[in-house]
Amino acid sequence: MDFQALCFKLKEIYNLYQNDEIILNKLGNYINNDLPLLLDNTKKNNQERSNRKLLLTSAHNDFVKTFLLKHENTYFYNNTAEIFFIYSNDNISNVKEDKIIYNILSAISETNNNSDEKKDLKQQLIPWKYKIKASILKNVRERNIFDCKTTDNTISLVLSLFQNKFNPIFSSENQVKYFLIILGDHILKKHNSNIYISSFHLRPLIRFLENYGGKYFGHIPVQNSFRYKYHGHKYEDIRLVPINEFKLTEELMDGLGKNILNIFCVAAHLSTIFNSSDEFVKDTKDINLLKYSFFLKNNSQDEIITIFINDKIEETSDCTINIKNMIFLWKCFLRERKLPNIIFMANLKKLLMGQLNYKDDDELFIDYTSSCLPIVSNFIKFWEQNIIENTNEFYLEISELLFLFKSSMGKLSNNMNEDDILNLIRHFYPDIIIDNNKYLISISCAIWDKKKDIIDFFNSIELKDKSDLNELFTQYLEFNKKNSKKNKFPIINKNYFELFLNENLKN
Length: 507
Prior knowledge:
This protein is mainly alpha-helical.
């Protein structure tokens, strides 16, 4: 009310009681004595309430801030899955909303022994506890779990998971970080045109991480950007991801599963620090990672063919390389550099013809050789002379074939291993049935009769109990041990021994 309105109201009251002396005396006493005191007290009370409200608001804000800053209250949230998380003792775990509320109300109710004033202030906050709870939960919901700055201890833990001593997924710390940053780029939805190509060993790991992470963060389509074969993508968009030939065992899955929250948050944190996987590779001092990851980005098909020729082909007169051997050398080049088949065969031949002398009628590259070819020729010669497709034979092991080949070739085959044998067979004899990368089915070797080996053993002992397989096989091993100097052949394994026993002695 303005001054004139007050005067009008006072005049109205006065006129109403102008003939009543008692009322007028009462009015005068109220205006002169009671009203000033009442107004003064009201002003003081309002000021106290205002000050109290400011104090409590400040205390409310301080409490919320202090609560959220405490190490044990490092809470985060994921909007997609609507799940709360806590980061404590270098470990991220999910937490129920009720648990957070309980911790908030318990913190409000705790007695502060520092001073009576603070005790009183805390008691005053108790009626505000639901407002405080709402404020804290609102703040927590605004703290994205992928904004969590993980500690060095958490990062080290995650790196160690991927570099397990007995079953390492990656060979170096930088390789792990590179993979995690790729994962982090997807988590943070940093869109780019990159296609990541890696060994098929990575496929189950990607699927596992995507499915397991989806339980806590919603679907993050990591698999969309990964390929395990070359499908004609632009080289400039391809990034190669190095990985070991590991096995995704139950033990490994258990370790990754228990730390899935740490893995995803470390991935997002590293992606934030390095901005992107490409920038990490560019900035790292790991030259091997840089060259491998950007190999296709930095080289054209012609340049890659030049690298292959420099690596595998030697110029020499009076020598030739046929097209089948040349393709085998190309496959060796890819395997050694852990590259996918990045050039289709029809185009590969054209590119090679563009840089090498080629006689189309005979499909020969003229005046070239390779240091890899003598062992190839020797193996083919050995195979053609000694290997027989035999439906009466169970199998010949790759390890046994390697043993026999080395025995025949001597020092010329010292560097050969089982993988080399497998690759040769798959390239030059693709119709051979290979089981579990280990057994050549219905294949025998002319220089070694496996079944006769076992028959010779049985002829050398008195057979009392043919049903005890373990005892018989133990005797067979002892027999071979005693005759090791004379024996130039492999020792038959227990599985084959049992097959022979079931087919022959028990009939």
